[in-house]
Write a structure and sequence with these properties.
The structure is a homodimer of 119-residue chains. Chain A is built from seven helices and three strands, in the order H-H-E-H-H-E-E-H-H-H. By secondary structure, chain A is mostly helical. The first copy, chain A, has two domains: 76 residues, Winged helix-like DNA-binding domain superfamily/Winged helix DNA-binding domain (Arc Repressor Mutant, subunit A, Orthogonal Bundle), CATH 1.10.10; 28 residues, no CATH class. The longest helix of chain A has 16 residues. Chain B binds a DNA duplex (30 and 30 nucleotides) through helix 3 and helix 4.
Chain lengths: 119, 119
DNA sequence: ATAACATGTCTATATGTCTCGACATATGGA
DNA sequence: TCCATATGTCGAGACATATAGACATGTTAT
């Protein structure tokens, strides 16, 4: 994830409909959702949704696979992690003392139940 | 950090000049930089830079304090952490098994030298 | 007070984004 | 094949953002 690719990812998330759709896909992970269902959830016409899904694709935040007549979109958590990783490296590079409190916060508050995995 | 505020933050980072400026401010942390120096670094006129800095302010990613004639901008790492926190909570909520690999990655690769603090 | 400096605000223009109707494409079933 | 379903693409209008010149504001020194 370089600066250029992260820009597409940030732009993708900087829009209410797209953020809502992405969150829905994360909640549905690892199962995806068909485009029509996402459009219905976001309350926008299918072609509008299609445009937004394309933006999320450009940002590397979702992936898609045809399933019969439907296009099944799913969250690309690797891409999402890549983005967060890029953000943290920006402040970590050569200066872990800046990054540490951020990671601490995650360990303590966000993913506490999962720390057994992290240790 | 709610969805609305995160939108302003994502939008702020979804622009090359602003991302460059923010990274510079993170590198300069905890010391800030005067607006003119940031403009020079980003190779844009001072008024263009002023607009971009205002966008970063709206996103809660930087802070400012007058210092004599200059306006000294500095990275707001709390705001930055808030944004990452928001992103992680989106995938962690009720599903720490999704978030865990992300945090693992940080502990292993990004902030390894700082893990003593995290434990 | 006056001047030089640093920065923000106003304004206009150019460019990009959002939205959605209309149309095109692809799949599956009768 | 013909039709219904599911989705993508195109085009246009409305709106937002980026850029930068001109001007205004606040600060420091003389």
């Amino acid at each position: 994830m370089d600066a250029k690719k992260s820009q597409a990812a940030f732009a993708a998330l900087a829009q209410p409909t797209r953020l809502k759709a992405f969150r829905k896909l994360v909640a549905a992970h690892p199962n995806g959702l068909p485009a029509g269902e996402i459009a219905q959830f976001c309350k926008v016409p299918h072609n509008t949704m299609s445009t937004h899904l394309a933006a999320l694709m450009r940002g590397g935040l979702i992936a898609v696979a045809r399933q019969g007549r439907s296009m099944n979109y799913r969250a690309n958590l690797d891409g999402f992690r890549g983005l967060i990783d890029f953000m943290l490296r920006d402040c970590c590079n050569g200066r872990p003392e800046i990054c540490a409190p951020v990671v601490d916060e995650f360990n303590a508050a966000c993913c506490a139940p999962a720390r057994k995995v992290a240790s």
